[in-house]
Recover the amino acids of this structure.
């Protein structure tokens, strides 16, 4: 079955899709109308697919806000996107397990900054309790580049907490990423000052001190993280110029293995 989720718009951005093992899915995309940019977010199921009329539309959302999405095995789901009007704003839509998405046109505020301090590359993840997280870069200018993460408690009517700074860099953070294993152990990775950097967070705890996983000259970009139901976590990224692909694996409860060139 093929569902048409958008038609008649001036343009649409690339869609993002996440699915859990029960067949629940979240989809989100940017669409451009004659009057504004919008972000459309919808939920689907294995039995019923996607229902176009159930899409939530968040508007106006300026600055080509291409969303990112995540869903956990219980059905808690989140979409987040970056707006760049006169300042930088990260917005989100949240759907608690068994519930409905944030009411249409009233997206949630995650983080913001002035026009002189750019926010970049928001990525999302949801742990097994429904706690949603957005990792993103901030600056420079005017000061050093920062890697930050904001979290939202599970459930209806919650608000995003103050962001935690994971790393301070000379230059801009590059494509940060975040993932949870089956036990809610979190792995965060980012490119910073030509190195692959990262931080771990035990279940229910706080992120620890940033570490270097690959030194100067790694030049990581396009970092991706995923985990199996048994807790094994894998990460991959483009490295170097003209570019190669590397990866590492962290077994459940173990240490990060050596990086392998693929």
């Amino acid at each position: 079955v093929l569902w048409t989720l958008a038609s008649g718009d001036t343009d649409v951005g690339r869609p993002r899709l996440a699915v859990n093992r029960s067949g629940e899915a979240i989809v989100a995309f940017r669409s451009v109308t004659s009057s504004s940019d919008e972000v459309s977010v919808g939920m689907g199921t294995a039995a019923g697919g996607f229902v176009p009329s159930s899409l939530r539309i968040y508007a106006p959302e300026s600055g080509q806000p291409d969303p990112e999405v995540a869903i956990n095995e219980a059905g808690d789901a989140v979409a987040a996107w970056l707006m760049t009007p006169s300042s930088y704003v990260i917005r989100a839509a949240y759907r608690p397990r068994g519930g409905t998405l944030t009411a249409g046109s009233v997206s949630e505020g995650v983080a913001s900054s002035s026009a002189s301090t750019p926010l970049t590359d928001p990525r999302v993840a949801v742990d097994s309790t429904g706690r949603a997280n957005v990792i993103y870069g901030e600056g420079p200018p005017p000061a050093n580049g920062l890697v930050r993460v904001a979290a939202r408690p599970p459930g209806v009517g919650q608000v995003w907490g103050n962001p935690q700074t994971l790393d301070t860099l000379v230059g801009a953070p590059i494509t940060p990423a975040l993932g949870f294993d089956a036990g809610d152990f979190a792995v965060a990775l980012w490119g910073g000052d030509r190195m692959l950097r990262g931080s771990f967070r035990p279940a229910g705890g706080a992120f620890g001190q940033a570490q270097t996983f690959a030194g100067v000259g790694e030049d990581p970009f396009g970092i991706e993280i995923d985990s199996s139901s048994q807790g094994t976590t894998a990460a991959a990224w483009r490295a170097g110029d003209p570019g190669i692909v590397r990866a590492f694996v962290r077994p459940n409860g173990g240490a990060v293995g050596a990086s392998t060139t693929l």
Remarks:
- The chain has a mean pLDDT of 91.
- DSSP finds no helices and 22 strands in the chain.
